[in-house]
Amino acid sequence: MRTTIELTEEQRAELLRLAAKRGLKGFSHLVQEALDEYLRHESKKLHLIDAALGLKGAFQGKGADEFETRTQALRSDWR
User: What confidence category does residue 30 fall into, taking pLDDT thresholds of 50, 70 and 90?
Assistant: First the structure.
C-alpha cells in the first residue's frame, strides 16, 4: 500500500545512503523495517503495562505492606 509521509531532507538523504549501502533502489524497505520494529516495541510495552495492571490487588496483608514500604524507599532515591 502506498502512503505519503513527511521527512526532513536529512532523513531522506540518510535513508537513501543506507539503502544504497544495501543495494536497494529506494528506501521503502528500510521504512517498513523501522515501522515493524517500532510496532513490536510498542506492542511489547503495552503488554508489560497490561501485565502490571493485572497485578492490581494481587498483594494482600503483610506482603502488600512490605511491598509498599520497599517501593516508597526506592522512590525516595529517584531524581
Answer: very high
Cell numbers given for 60: 494482600
> Is the residue at 3 inside a domain?
no
Which among 70, 50, 48, 75 has a CA at the least distance from the CA of 59?
Answer: 70
Q: Tell me, what's the pLDDT at 6? A: 96
| Domain with 68 in it | 9-76
Report pLDDT digits (tens) over 47-60.
Answer: 888 887 787 777 78
Distance between CA atoms of residues 37 and 20, nearest Å: 21
Contact 55, 39 (CB under 8 A): no
Distance of CA 33 to the CA centre of its chain: 14
Sequence letter at residue 33? E
Do residues 7 and 26 lie in contact, with contact meaning Cβ atoms separated by under 8 Å? no
Give phi and psi for 27, each to the nearest 5.
-110, 10
